[in-house]
Amino acid sequence: MSTNDNDPHSDPEKCMEILLRVPLTLHYLTEGNANVIYSIAPNTTDPDLALHDHCCVLRMRKDLPTTRPTLVNMTAIRDRITPLFGPEHVHNLMPKALYPLTENTLQQADEILRKLDKHLAESKAGSRVPAGRGPGHPPLNEEPHAVLMPNLRHGDHTLFHEFKPKWLHQSPSAPAGARRCRTCATNALKRSKGGKKGKGDSGFCPLDLFSDDRAIIKGILQKIDPEHGDSDWFIDAFLQQIQPVIQHLATLQAEHNTEVLKTPAILAHTTMLLRWRRLKVAHVKLADLDLKLMTDENLKKWAKMENELISSGVYTSTAMPGSACALERQLD
Ligand SMILES: [Zn+2]
C-alpha cells in the first residue's frame, strides 16, 4: 500500500475509520437499482478531519421488496466471498464498513431525494430512475445501516480506471470448435441483435487479459484508457500488479465452475477498479462482488442466455461482427 507520500487518503481503511466517528454531510452522487450513493463530507471544524471530504461514499439501500438488509448482505459477503481471496488477495477486495445510520443522516438523504425528484419533475428532465419516481430509503427501524466505502476516483494527482474482467474461462457447455469465449459470444449475440453495448462489453476478449504479449495488453489498455493505454508504465503495471489479481479471479472461477453458475457468476460480474498516484498503481480493488446477484431470476436469465448462445450458433459462427476473440485468433 502506498504510504510514501503525503496523501492523507493512501490507506482507505484509515479514512473510513475516521469517517465512522464524525457526523456527515451527504451529497447525491449516483444511484443504481438497489442503492443510492452519496458522497460524504465530515461535519467538523477539525482541519485534520475536514481533509476527508469526499474521499469516501455512503451506499444507502432503497426501500424496495427486492433489497435485503445491509447487515445481511455484509455478513453474506464476509462469510462467502472474503474467504475466497485468502491473505494474499484479501486487500484486493473493496473495503467496506457497516455504517450505523442516525435519524439525521436518513433525513438528509430523504430530503436530497425529495428535492431531486421535485427538480426533475419541474424541469421535465425525467426521473431519477427510468421506471418512474425512484423510491426513498427504508425507515431507520427497518434499515439501521449503510455501507461506507472509499471513493477511489477522489484526489489530486490520481488517475482512475474501471473495467469488468468477465468470464475468464470458456463456458463448460460451449460446443467443441468454438471460435468465441463465453463473453465474446455474449457480446457478439447482443451486437447482432442491434442491442445497446452493455457494461460487460469492453471491446476486448477476457482471455487476452492473461497474455504476456505486450502488443495484446496494449490493445486492451487502449480500450480501457485511449489516452494512456499505450504508455509503458501502464503496460508494465498491468503485467506486474494487475494480471496476478486477474489470475486469482480466474482460478476462483475455475474452482467453482461446477457450482451451477452461482459463485462463478458473482466472480464474473465483479468490477476491477484501479487507482493510480503519480503514475504508479496505488490500489487494485474488486467491487460489486455482491450476493444480490444470486436470485433465482438471475440464475434463470443466465441459463437462458447460455442456451441461446449454444442454439444460435454464436460460439462457432464464422460470420459474426465484433472484436476478435483470443480463441478465434488461435484458430486462424
Ligand atoms: Zn473471447
TrEMBL record:
Recorded catalytic activity of this chain's protein: 1D-myo-inositol 1,3,4,5,6-pentakisphosphate + ATP = 1D-myo-inositol hexakisphosphate + ADP + H(+)
InterPro entries for the chain: Ins_P5_2-kin
This protein's UniProt keywords: ATP-binding, Kinase, Nucleotide-binding, Transferase
Pfam families membership: Ins_P5_2-kin (PF06090)
The enzyme's E.C. designation: 2.7.1.158
Origin: domain of life: Eukaryota
Any one GO molecular function term: ATP binding
Entry text on domains: The EXKPK motif is conserved in inositol-pentakisphosphate 2-kinases of both family 1 and 2.
Cited function: Phosphorylates Ins(1,3,4,5,6)P5 at position 2 to form Ins(1,2,3,4,5,6)P6 (InsP6 or phytate). Has kinase activity and phosphorylates inositol-1,3,4,5,6-pentakisphosphate (Ins(1,3,4,5,6)P5) to produce 1,2,3,4,5,6-hexakisphosphate (InsP6), also known as phytate.
Protein's name according to its UniProt entry: Inositol-pentakisphosphate 2-kinase
Organism: Cyphellophora attinorum
